[in-house]
Amino acid sequence: MIVAMCQLDEGWAIEQVSVLESRLDDRTGWTKTQVQRELTAPDRTYIADIRNSSDGSDIGSQAEFQGTGHFAADDDTKTWLANGWTSERPTAVMRGYAGYWHDGLSGEMTSVNVDPRHRRVGVGAGLVKWIIEDAKRHHIQRLTLEVRPDNIPAKALYDGFGFRHTTRLKNYYGQGVDADEMALDLEPRTVGFVGVLGDNDHRREGTKHE
């Protein structure tokens, strides 16, 4: 079940995300301090894939997302979430998480991280799909992200959703490690100016769509 990170117990969520970051094998993982700063930033939207650690089944019913990006679950799950999803529920496991921010017109995916033990079962695709749909609800025109050039599985995942390579960012991760920037256009982006000519309401030549 995909849930909004803000509806989880903060301490438990920070701990779970920190563990996932520590399992990255490319030395780009966040420290616990960075995780806390990201998850509590007011302009960030983070989500998590939560499952039962014993058998991998959903905890509660499948999330049904509404226009606000929140979800509706069964009554037991709503009660549990209202009280905070805490580490006192030892069967809960975070299989992956993702997040993004936006300024109203453009957005950037800040992270998509799936536990190595739960890869290749659709967790990453589910998280990316949620973010794209949420971005569309907010009428965001373009989503961008950065990924290591040698992270072929991740690039293939993003390719499948329509992301396209835009540029190479030199030394983006430090220590000489570059990043590939990828972008997905969700709505036509108006560049230039829009005016009115006469009664026909034609757009001036100074406007173009990308």
From TrEMBL:
Pfam families: Acetyltransf_1 (PF00583). Signal peptide: none annotated. Keywords: Acyltransferase, Transferase. InterPro entries: Acyl_CoA_acyltransferase (IPR016181), GNAT_dom (IPR000182), YpeA/RimI_acetyltransf (IPR050680). The keyword Transferase applies. One of its GO terms (molecular function) is acyltransferase activity, transferring groups other than amino-acyl groups. Residues 34-187 form the N-acetyltransferase domain. PANTHER family: ACETYLTRANSFERASE, N-ACETYLTRANSFERASE DOMAIN-CONTAINING PROTEIN. This is Ribosomal-protein-alanine acetyltransferase. It comes from Bifidobacterium bohemicum DSM 22767. The lineage of its organism: Bacteria, Bacillati, Actinomycetota, Actinomycetes, Bifidobacteriales.
